[in-house]
Design brief:
The protein is an all-alpha fold. 69% of the residues lie in helices and 0% in strands. It starts with 9 loop residues before the first helix and ends with a helix.
């Protein structure tokens, strides 16, 4: 049911571009539509898709329909029905997109409800001075054992560059870059094994 302060000619006012009518629709329907979207998106999808974004997309489609004159004035209930349908279709589209092939959200592991997420804590904290010193020492040991032309490869690797990017930047064959990175990785594993 429509709130009492909204008149029955709301759709007509919307079609005429009345900002107050649009604001009333937005304020009245948005919480319900967000709840609907939240219920349609499972926990894995909600990690990738915000229900509020789905509702905004539904409103955008609604405004396009309204502007084209495709939306017939069926009153308040017709408006709710259309917004509900648009929201459900947007949820289905997002789910289909995020379950396709390599984006499949079903392949991701999620933490059980109520447990802290250690990966968030780890990503948000700075290393301790001791951890920073150990890292600096390890990098120094690695670089000390390399030739002058090999050091830039490891330095760029530590900065997050891919094998291909390093190859292009330094003018080295990808195979050479890949072999050096693998050799350094094995060396790090040996160093880690001897520490334990």
């Amino acid at each position: 049911m429509a709130p009492d302060d909204l008149s029955s000619d709301l759709v007509t006012r919307l079609q005429a571009g009345d900002g107050d009518a649009a604001r009333a629709v937005f304020e009245y329907f948005t919480p319900r539509l967000i709840g609907l979207a939240r219920g349609r998106l499972d926990a894995r999808l909600r990690q990738r898709v915000d229900p509020e974004d789905v509702v905004q997309s539904a409103y955008k489609s609604f405004l396009v329909l309204l502007g084209e004159g495709t939306f017939a004035s069926e009153g308040w209930d017709g408006l709710w029905g259309l917004l509900t349908l648009l929201t459900l279709r947007k949820c289905a589209d997002r789910a289909r997109f995020h379950r396709a092939g390599c984006r499949d959200a079903g392949r991701e592991a999620i933490a059980p409800e109520g447990l802290p997420e250690p990966w968030r804590q780890a990503a948000g904290r700075e290393p301790t001075p001791e951890e920073g010193a150990v890292l600096a020492e390890t990098v120094e040991l690695l670089l000390r054992g390399l030739d002058e032309d090999e050091r830039p490869i490891v330095e760029l690797s530590l900065q997050g560059y891919s094998t291909q990017e390093i190859s292009e930047q330094l003018g080295r064959a990808e195979r050479s870059v890949r072999r050096l990175r693998e050799r350094v990785r094995r060396q790090l594993e040996r160093m880690h094994a001897t520490e334990q």
